[in-house]
């Protein structure tokens, strides 16, 4: 499994559609300060489901949409941001029957966003489930941003434990457990309601 292409369109400084083709092995992105290197990494975490605007170095999620530029070659702000990540899955590492998987996330300035897997609209949960055993994904700490090493070194023991749990793949099961507990709570409430009704009828 390896990342094949990343396409950004209207995402941060990438107003026009821009595709990065990645080869297996190491890829270096070089460029002057402010040219958009970190924006490429932001796009990678965003398409995999990042939901914290702060992690994407913005104030609100809408900040990922191209905000326009001034000057002679100025461009107007865009109404939506879209990022597509294509993963080579010829080794079947991802639990899906496709040799190539494209995950797309679109966000509209008017509100609302959507995810697609190989063109089919899906939920964020589907994207998370697809990536959860692969070692990549939103909370897998595979993208280490500037200053993050410091954050790990200064983390509390609880925070460090969370890092280890994520690396060990416990996250998916914790998420499932939380979902199951929520369902149990709802069921308890229903049972209480049924018990009340039975008392009323008697
Ligand atoms: P450095 O080497 O200094 O870390 P970098 O190459 O990583 O820089 P980025 O942080 O990726 O640069 O890009 C910053 C640029 O992206 C800034 O010029 C900023 O104005 C631009 N930018 C960020 N968000 C948007 C947006 N929503 N619309 C337009 N431009 C944006």
TrEMBL record:
Signal peptide: none
Coiled-coil region list: 170-202
Residue numbers binding ATP: 32-39
Protein localization: Cytoplasm
Quaternary structure and interacting proteins, as annotated: Homodimer.
Comment text on domains: Contains large globular domains required for ATP hydrolysis at each terminus and a third globular domain forming a flexible hinge near the middle of the molecule. These domains are separated by coiled-coil structures.
The protein's role, per its UniProt record: Required for chromosome condensation and partitioning.
Entry's family note: Belongs to the SMC family.
Protein's name in the database: Chromosome partition protein Smc
Gene that encodes the chain: smc
